[in-house]
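ugh ok fine here u go
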Amino acid sequence: MSDIKSSFWAEALIRRARLGGAFAYLRRHGDDDAGIVVLKIALMDGRAIVLMPERDENFSRIWVPQTKEAQTEAEADLWIEKAIHRDPDLWVVEIEDPQGRDFLLPEERPPLDES
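structure:
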């Protein structure tokens, strides 16, 4: 099965987050068909988590935190700006949720830290 368009996927994630009681919005519009979506989860205490998609050993999309721990929102924003500079087609979805929920589908969850 091929991946769905980035625009459709981003809209669906925003809708799931809003239905779950979080505030979510499209922070940056990238390439409609193939732009990679970056997910920023703002914890509402000055910290944030940035997730990027990767492929696992079965070529399924999984979401991987870009730092071991939550970083400041300013650090997260700087990381995102650098990523946009490298890839101008990036999408950015931001979810504001004090519980840190990502609203991803179960098969897309970030891998557990096994260290």
